[in-house]
Structure formats: structure tokens, C-alpha cells
Specification:
The protein is of the alpha+beta class. It contains 15 helices and four strands.
């Protein structure tokens, strides 16, 4: 990064504003967030030359938002081919603004591909895009739909040879799949496999809760006690906790414990999750110290925030899926 700044900063012959200088100083100290903010600053001022230089440097260092900066700057400089390459790289790494830009670029040229980019932007975190996607759209041919159905069945466990062989078929685009099917399938699968990864994170979070329970002398339904060493930031896409009628104390879920973590989560989803944790009755609970049931509740389909993906674990380590929420 040091060599990069020796090249970049002498290029800036214009007077440097105090806010710009502060961002440059932070970036020179090799603070990734400072460099990203500097790139955003140049983007906001439509300084496309500096936006590209900063963006390209960040992109090379796997800061994906940098790829979006670089792609956007190139588009503004009338270099669409190069710009789209950078934006695709960012979108494929789940950067939502890049996906949205590609959706806008292709809106008149290819409606289905544009729609899929917008859908990816929605699933990757841009909620303002989601409300335009509620109407169903037929993206694939009947054979494309059939292929995807078989692929999902074969990729229940994504690490199997059968799943990998099925994915290789997409590259070869065998008939009767059409070229459009094969163009769209990878983008669709990126949404689906990302959701599968999130399910794995939810299951890991529940097994971590089980491990924390086993550290205690007796099984506990006191969430603050169980999660006192829990890194909650890593699991904010799912809400973890006990049913409210079983919980000891007023804090039954991670929303109660770590509200700031969920500040950007859909209110509709939070309401549905609250309903789930409020269901049931006291008679369904384990007696204090003898056992517990913990749940992970998530929403994997932001187009339908009321659709829940729910997992449960108990003191014996039995991990069960209560409801399927894959998009």
C-alpha cells in the first residue's frame, strides 16, 4: 500500500481540502476503512480519476467495495467493457451496489439478466431494491427449472462429489439447456448457495450455544449467562435464543441482548421472529437445570421477510430444522 500512495498523492495537484487530507492520512496509515472512505469521498465528488486509482488499489487487495468504485469510475469515463468487468467481480463477491449498477445497465438490453442482478442486490443487502421484485418472473425454460430442481436435490450437502459434478454441467451448458439458461443459472445459484452458507453459520451458532451450556454446572435458560463470551456480531443474520416462556430473565433472544447488531434488519422479519419466540406455553419447558431448547431464526429471502428459516438444538445435541426458508 505504501508504494501505491507514493504514486497517488503527488498526482493530486489541486488544493486539498481538510476533510480530504484527514482521509488521506488515515489511508496512508494502512487503515482499510480510511481508504474506503477516501474512495467514497472521491466518488461523491465525481472525481473519477482518483476514484479509479483508489478503487483499483483496494480491489487488488480484496476490498470488494473498491472493485465497485473502480467499475463505476470507468463507466463514468466511457469505458463500459472495463467497468463491467470490475462490477461483475464485486457482484460475484456479494457487493450489492455493484449488482444494482449492473441491473440498471442491462435493464433495456436484457430484462431477465437485469432482473437477476437486482434480485442479487436485494439478497446481498439493498432492501430498497426488494419491493420491486415481489412479482414472480419466469427466468428459465422448463428444462432450466428441471435442472435447478435436480441440482438442489444433489447439493443438499454442497461438499459432495455429486454436487460438484452437477455444477460442472453449468459450464458445459449441455442441451436441452438454452444459452439464456446457462447465462442466468450462475447468478441464481449465487443467491441459493449464499443462503446455504448462512444456514451453516446458524447451525454453528447453535452448536456454540450447546458448548457454552456444557461449560455450566447445570443447563441454563438464562441467555446472558450462556452467551457471556459469545461473538454476536458474526451471527446477526439469525436471531438466537430461548422461547420467551422458558427464558430466565427478560432477555430471551440476541435481539434483547445485542439490539444494535440488528438495527439494519427488516422490521417485518423482526416482528415475525418475535411471534415465533413468543409461541408456546410454560408446560413445554424443561425443568430448570435438566435441559434446554435453543433456536436460530433467520430470513434468507428478503423479498418475503415473513418467511422464516428455523433451527433448534437441545441438551443432547440434536440439531433439527423446524422450517425451511431457502429462497
Amino acid at each position: 500500500m505504501k508504494i501505491f500512495f507514493l504514486i497517488l498523492f503527488p498526482m493530486m495537484a489541486m488544493a486539498i481540502r481538510p476533510e480530504e487530507q484527514a482521509l488521506m492520512d488515515a489511508c496512508q496509515k494502512r487503515e482499510p476503512m480510511g481508504c474506503e472512505k477516501l474512495g467514497a469521498y472521491y466518488m461523491s465528488r465525481e472525481n473519477w480519476e482518483n476514484s479509479f486509482v483508489i478503487g483499483e488499489a483496494l480491489c487488488k487487495r480484496e476490498s470488494i467495495i473498491g472493485c465497485t468504485y473502480a467499475g463505476t469510475a470507468l463507466l463514468a469515463q466511457k469505458k463500459p467493457k472495463e467497468g463491467i468487468t470490475y462490477l461483475n467481480r464485486a457482484c460475484d463477491k456479494f457487493e450489492p451496489f455493484a449488482c444494482r449498477s449492473l441491473g440498471r445497465l442491462l435493464k433495456k438490453e436484457d430484462g431477465n439478466l437485469s432482473h437477476l442482478y437486482f434480485r442479487r442486490a436485494c439478497h446481498y443487502g439493498l432492501e430498497d431494491v426488494c419491493h420491486d421484485l415481489s412479482k414472480k418472473r419466469q427466468l428459465f425454460t422448463k428444462m432450466g427449472d428441471s435442472f435447478l430442481k435436480r441440482l438442489k436435490e444433489d447439493c443438499t450437502d454442497t461438499g459432495t462429489t455429486l454436487c460438484q459434478d452437477r455444477l460442472k454441467e453449468v459450464d458445459s451448458c449441455p442441451g436441452p439447456l438454452t444459452k439464456d439458461d446457462c447465462l442466468l443459472i450462475p447468478g441464481y445459484l449465487s443467491i441459493w448457495f449464499r443462503a446455504k452458507m448462512m444456514q451453516i453459520q446458524a447451525k454453528l451458532a447453535l452448536t456454540t450455544m450447546l458448548a457454552e451450556e456444557k461449560k455450566l454446572k447445570m443447563f441454563s435458560n438464562n441467555l446472558e449467562e450462556v452467551l457471556k463470551d459469545f461473538k454476536h456480531e458474526e451471527h446477526h443474520r439469525y436471531i438466537l435464543g430461548f422461547k420467551k416462556y422458558c427464558a430466565v430473565g427478560k432477555k430471551a433472544t440476541t435481539v434483547d441482548l445485542f439490539p444494535v447488531t440488528y438495527k439494519n434488519i427488516s422490521k417485518k422479519f423482526l416482528d415475525e421472529a418475535n411471534k415465533f419466540f413468543s409461541q408456546g406455553k410454560k408446560d413445554d419447558c424443561y425443568k430448570s437445570g435438566t435441559g434446554f431448547e435453543a433456536f436460530a431464526v433467520g430470513n434468507l429471502d428478503p423479498v418475503d421477510p415473513k418467511k422464516l428459516d428455523v433451527w433448534k438444538i437441545n441438551q443432547d445435541g440434536n440439531l433439527i430444522q423446524i422450517s425451511e426458508g431457502l429462497p
